[in-house]
User: Fold this.
Amino acid sequence: MNAPIVRLFGVIVLLFALLVVFTSRWTVFEASSLNDNSLNVRTLLDELRIKRGQILAADGTVLAKSVPAAGGTWSRTYPQGRLFAQPVGFSIAAKGEAAGLEQSAGPDLRGVQTGLSSIFGQLSPRPVGDDVHTTLDPNGQRAAQQALAGRAGSVVALDPSTGAVKVMYSNPGYDDNDPPSKNSVTDTTFNRATQGAYAPGSTFKIVTATAAIDSGKYTPDSLINGNSPILVSGVPLANDGNQDWGLQTLTTAMTFSINTIFAQVAEHVGRPTMTDYMKRFGFYSKPPLDFPPFELNTSKPVAPNGRPYPPGSPNEDIGRIGIGEGGMQVTPLQMAMVAAAVANGGTLMTPHLIDRVVDQDGRTVRTTHPSVYSHVMKPSTAAEVTKMMEKVVEEGTGTAVQLGGISVAGKTGTAEIGASGSNLTQPAFVAFAPADHPKIAIAVNVDISNGGFGGTVAAPIAKAVLQALLVNGG
Amino acid sequence: MSARNRELLGLIPASLLVTAGFAGVFIQRSNALSNVSLTYGALFLGLCIAAHVFVRITLPRADPYMFPLVAVLASFGLVMIYRIDPTLARQQAQWFVLGLVLFAATILLFRDYRKLERYRYVIVLVSLGLLVLPRLPGIGYAANGAYLGVRIPGLFVFQPAEFAKIGLVIFLASYLRDTRQVLVQGGRRFLGITFPPLKQFGPVVVIWGLAMATLVVLSDTGSSVMFYGGLLAMLYVATNRLSFVVIGLIAAAVGFWYLGTHIPHIHARVETWLHPLNPRLYHAPLGSYQVANSMFAQAAGGMFGQGFGQAALTLPNGGALLPAPQTDMVYAVITDELGLFGAVAVLMTYLLFVARGFKTAMLARDSFSTLLAVGLSAMFALQVFVIVGGVTRVIPLTGVTLPFISYGGSSILANLVLLALLLLVSDRARRPE
Assistant:
């Protein structure tokens, strides 16, 4: 009976070979299509089972952390809620949704699994992500929240010498523990600080003054006729109150925000030079922030039909752009960068939110080293523009920001919005302090005010935040 | 080296495996290496050595590889189940101890296993009776539409098919020993095919028919395939007539086609086998969710697996991602965690065990012993094929256990009795004349 036994064993070997073939089919040959199958929830579960690292403020305040959830998974909580919701964002792995740093620092927070570590990972516990230490300052953030006092608007503050973002606050916000639905009327994930499209108004005169002086066409003492109204691109342009200022220096024009002078300066400096300086400040490209690209808006002039002008377009009204009108749209982040460039001797540092990434064993995985984004202007130009901006705060439109012992350099802006004749304005203020040794550059925008000015509505907010960052916070 | 010393050496890898396995699971679980894993390894080694000493005394010439192979499988099974649910693993370990007692009892009671032949009709009737038990009201219960188990409330739950398989093999070995000559010589040729004589073949057909009918009533397709395959294997070895097997396979094909199209529970299984990734079947109750997730789990494992304790088994809401991971789906969990390589290693271990069983059958000096060893080995191999084939979608998924690895007392007990019988046959076969 031995021959049939051998043949029977042969059949069983064949059957087992079939099992090996089918196991190979699922584990190797068809594995990637099975992994990608829409019915397969394993990839998503893997994500849920990773303990994401914490997000921390500069002083160690925990902004986001993982807490254990059912089935060996983790969920995210945000102890600071609304205060930091815009920069921190949220992550809902189960829905594949994320925003803010939770999205842009996702690979760090998850802890990237390299090929080698996944082999050794078989002996190690479930992956734990790295902690992300941000540059955000809770004092400044709180001051911004309190000073805005519920009004729609935003505050961005940078360290000009490094580009570190100290404050990023936008109102209305949301609680990132419970992200709002799209049709929520009170809450929004829209981050005005990086996505808002504000008319900069007179704050843009910093850019125009920089181009005028740095190009050598003007000095702070150049005299320009400040009569009103004048024709700009064939349309009359008037000063505030249609005031005739006569011959005035560029410094005086800055101090009292004389529109007709700056429109003439912009036209005389010329479209190509203006465009060049705007680009140096970061206009026309997404801000180089370590933040999700879809949450970053590009600052640029926009035609009445809603389309952005190509850089240097002959159709744009460069005179009005020179005073922050003419369809100019900016983010508060961009205006903070403008202030920071002047504050840092003309060198614009790349803004960043992540200071360093630290793994669970306390080793620093990555540190953000300050890097130069562009050399906007000569240091001498920066010094002169700084002096002009100091005048604004000492005796001009921005006196409300005066900080006592600390000298502040600033520029107000008040864009008129709504139908002509309406009293609605959009106040803005851009500043840095201390003027002689700048530590903070700040941009404040308030969405809507009934007749308020940059100097009366936005400047006090900037003052409160500067105070928190420079005086109280040290 | 003597056979028993080889067996003793063979136990070392088994206990190393259980130690390393538990260590792996502990690291994963508690982020710390506990010396409990060494305790488990030592306990397991002690248990195996006790069984080994017993075999050394009672069956000194028996095959030296079968017991270590079983120890490897059982230790591996314990680790896998511990990883899925520590409570179940403790119970499984208790079943293993009880199984070793039953193993020893079988060897002591049936030193001359040929006396089993005397009770062949009692054995076959008891086996058939066992098969009907799950259908009896009060104690039987169904799982997924199949009547697989018997539950005496508060006492125990067991799956009679596991034991019936051994009884049927004993009966067939004995019956075919008596009739194989007649079956071969009395066969008639018709249309160029040799048909077995009805008179001698009759009882086989009756037994088969009864077993099949019972299984249709119980809807336990997995066991039915296993029994029928075992029967054909024994018939083939007894008669060396391929035509009998071909006739049997055709009859089976017709039977399964009928069952597959007319019994809803079986038809549904065939549908889910053919189209597991159809979203409608995937979301249907008793649909393809289990089979599809078995494939997903294997895909997640890939070539080398995710490592012990890394497979996802439950959903965040506590629901099952991979239903029945400790029983039907244990092979998918193995593939997920140890990859293609680990899964093939397990299959090779089974194949080695089956090879030793067939080797024993070839060494046996009388037909009953040969047929008994062939039947038990073939049945064992088919059981592995039916469940692994179901999990890997070679065939529709049916509920039988993966021997020595799946969680389940009946499976452990019955398969240890199977091992005892094979060792008994082996010892007699290797005894000098």
About this structure: The longest strand of chain A covers residues 424-433. The two ends of chain A are 96 Å apart (CA to CA).
